Amino acid sequence: MRAIETHERSGAAAVRRWTLVVLGAAAVGLVPWMILLAHTLPASPEVRHWQVAWVGLDVLLAAGCAATAALGFRRDGHARLTASATAAIAILDAWFDITTSLPGADLLQAFACAAAEVALAGACVFLAVSKRAGGMRCG
């Protein structure tokens, strides 16, 4: 039995190691892609379905908040996963709020929204990494 457990652990370690290699390769591979995009994308494209894109992002953010709250109140350790994903979505929302805003009042409003989204992301990160956050236990 112990040999099987050791074999399973070494198999999981190999999968983890290869997953990390793939992620590292993706990070390196994205560098030339980003350089290409920086040189070829138009500065001011016309976008179809602009409202759908923005509302969809906010729907995703609201769903992440709701799922994290529901799982957290049930003390389900999976809330850590939804909190992590929700933090990433909030940061993305803040980034696009700022980078797609027009100068002036629109940009000031974007910074105000981004401040709220960054605070939300911080709360989610706290829940994701805190050992005692909401009594959530993994496993």
Largest sheet: none
Number of helices: 4
Helix content: over 70%
Beta-strand segment tally: 0
The first-to-last residue Cα distance is 22 Å
Radius of gyration: 20 Å
The arrangement of helices and strands along the chain is HHHH
Strand content: under 5%
Oligomer: single chain
What is the 3D shape? Answer: flat
Unreliable segments of 5+ consecutive residues:
none
Mean pLDDT: 90
Q: Features of this protein?
A:
about 140 residues, mainly alpha, flat
Notes on the protein architecture:
It contains four helices and no strands. The chain has helices at 2-40, 50-73, 79-99, 105-129.
Compact summary:
With 139 residues, this protein is mainly α.
Protein topology:
Elements: H1 2-40, H2 50-73, H3 79-99, H4 105-129
